[in-house]
Backbone:
């Protein structure tokens, strides 16, 4: 497969067209941003960790019946994915209070929920990714009712599978963000990434943060945390 011109550059990834009209190549960067791009930095080695971790998790999800965009890992930082148009919704699942949930609703971090929660943000940097509900999403024509039903069902299934998988390596899956895409035939599949950038991951025994909150909150040892998650998932560092 030949990598052709870049068609998109996001905060953490670049996307390239290829000679196959149904395939893109994504390339993961070490660039890190937080608070809608107001805080900027670099997390050395992050691109490789996020690429390899996303691919490992997406393959596990596929094996368990969740359709994803994953096709083939090309290198440390590059992966072939199915071409999709991204549904402009950030789908957030929470198992434990943290981050904006704790902030918005005035509770401490670490409260374990009886059931996971789901919420949507409208993926729009100019507006600061505002929280919306499924009626707003339909009014804005971001997705149909059927697509939203599929997205909700897949997101909770992903949560069940990821929660169990992370526990086997001593990690609590606190919360995470997913993005979905439409293939050319209109099928909804899981896209984007699943990484310490997009998940809150706490050590099961100590609750030590092993995710991007170390960067957002200047907690130090950011690189080490990313490598530690990868080491646990694969038994080796990248
Ligand atoms: P939040 O508590 O800040 O809303 O974040 C919930 C989860 O979503 C957390 O695991 C981090 C992830 N997330 C992203 O992946 N991208 C974002 O832009 C934001 C705000 C959160």
Residues:
């Amino acid at each position: 497969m030949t990598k052709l011109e870049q068609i998109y550059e996001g905060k953490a990834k670049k996307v390239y067209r290829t000679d196959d009209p149904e395939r893109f190549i994504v390339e993961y960067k070490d660039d890190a941003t937080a608070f809608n791009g107001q805080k900027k930095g670099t997390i050395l080695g992050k691109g490789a960790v996020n690429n390899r971790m996303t691919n490992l998790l997406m393959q596990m999800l596929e094996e368990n019946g969740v359709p994803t965009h994953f096709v083939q890992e090309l290198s440390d930082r590059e992966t072939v994915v199915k071409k999709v148009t991204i549904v402009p919704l950030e789908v957030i699942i929470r198992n434990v209070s943290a981050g904006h949930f704790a902030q918005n609703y005035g509770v401490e971090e670490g409260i374990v929920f009886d059931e996971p929660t789901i919420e949507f943000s409208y993926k729009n940097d100019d507006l600061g990714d505002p929280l919306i509900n499924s009626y707003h999403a339909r009014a804005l024509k971001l997705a149909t009712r059927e697509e939203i039903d599929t997205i909700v069902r897949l997101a909770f299934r992903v949560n069940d599978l990821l929660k169990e998988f992370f526990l086997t390596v001593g990690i609590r899956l606190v919360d995470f963000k997913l993005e979905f895409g439409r293939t050319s035939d209109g099928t909804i599949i899981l896209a984007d990434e699943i990484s310490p950038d997009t998940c809150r991951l706490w050590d099961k025994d100590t609750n030590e943060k092993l995710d991007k909150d170390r960067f957002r909150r200047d907690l130090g040892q950011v690189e080490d945390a990313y490598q530690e998650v990868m080491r646990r998932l694969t038994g080796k560092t990248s």
